[in-house]
Amino acid sequence: MKNKIRIGALISGSGTNLKAIIDSCKSGKIDGKVVFVGSDNPNAKGLERSKKQKIPTFIVNYTSIIQNFNKNPKKIKIPDDFDLDDVLLKQSLFPFDFEAKKIKAFMITRAAAEAKLLEEMKDYPFDLLVLAGFMRNLTPYFIDRVNPEPENPKIMNIHPALLPAFPGVDGYGDTFRYGCKVGGCTVHFVDYGEDSGPIIGQKTFQINKDDTLETVKQKGLQLEWKLYPESIQLFAKKCLRIEKMTYIQPNNKITKRAVVKIVD
Ligand code: GRF
After folding, report:
1. Which of 13, 105, 114, 239 registers the highest number of CB atoms within 10 A of its CB?
2. pLDDT per residue over 82-123, tens digit each?
3. 3-class state of residue 200 by DSSP
4. Which residue has the least CA distance to atom 5 on ligand 1?
5. Within a 10 A sphere around the Cβ of 254, how many other Cβ atoms?
6. What is the number of H-type helices and E-type strands within the chain?
7. Of these residues, 159, 188, 203, 217, which one is catalytic?
8. Radius of gyration of the chain (CA)
9. Which domains does the chain have, with CATH numbers?
10. Mutation to probe ligand 1, out of 47, 175, 221 (largest number of atoms < 8 A from CB)
11. Active-site residue, 159 included
12. Taking 80 as the threshold, does the pLDDT of residue 190 lie above it?
């Protein structure tokens, strides 16, 4: 394990990105080792892959936590250290004028699930947490506990579009339906918004007149399997540095943004 980073992974589905990461660790393209795989979905195919590789796995069933809350909100186990006001102030998953009751229910149910994730993850110390097709938004409750120093982010995500275009659950579909002539994928650090964190790397592909949604997805995934291991290796080599950029928008609003600088 000398000079190897410990990588934790969260998945929801087939786990082909996870496979690319595990293979890259084995071949030496990543100086790292996957130390656990967690999922919100008991049927995630990627869990089987992980078990075959003798990587510890666990499941936190988000769907049942949310269903139970909807049946009886009073019965939910809110973590003792959960501060709703703090989470509401920090989050940028929802606009401020979004229905308060819905945001509150979202944050409470997700924090209840996230407390279980944290509990499971306690057994496996890690340097980097990768979201590899994990289809759940993380709240500030979880992010702050995994990532107490925002200037040293340690949660990465892969997104199937060229961010900041097309955040959300269907990046390739949105790219294709919009009629884009170029598509792509993005690896970024996770912040309090949806697919809004500092960008680490991107790859692009052409969309031609004969392409279908299926071929677009295939082209994108092929690139994801290269981009994610490359980005993780940059992290392992300590080549990723966060810098603050300040700029004035056309409406004279001063904006501060964290960006990733790649250093040698
Ligand atoms: C990928 O397209 C990834 O970008 C997105 O979800 C998909 C996961 O695929 N977040 P897999 O589970 O890695 O095969």
Report:
1. 114
2. 999 999 999 999 987 888 899 999 999 999 999 999 999 999
3. strand
4. 133
5. 8
6. 8, 9
7. 159
8. 19
9. 5-262 (3.40.50.170)
10. 221
11. yes
12. yes
Judge whether 219 and 172 are in contact, CB under 8 Å. Answer: no
Give the Å distance between the CA of 5 and the centre of ligand 1.
Answer: 22
Structure tokens at 199: 């960008």
* pLDDT tier, 1 (very low <50, low <70, confident <90, very high otherwise): low
Distance 28 CA to ligand 1 centre (A): 22
pLDDT at 250: 85
Tell me, using a 6 A CB cutoff, whether residue 224 lines ligand 1.
Answer: yes
27-77 tens-digit pLDDT? 999 999 999 999 999 999 999 999 999 999 999 999 999 999 999 999 999
Q: What is the mean pLDDT of residues 7-31?
A: 97
Atom 1 (ligand 1): residue with closest C-alpha?
Answer: 133
- Ligand 1 centre to CA of 107 (Å) is 24
The closest alpha carbon to 110, from 132, 126, 91, 128, belongs to 91
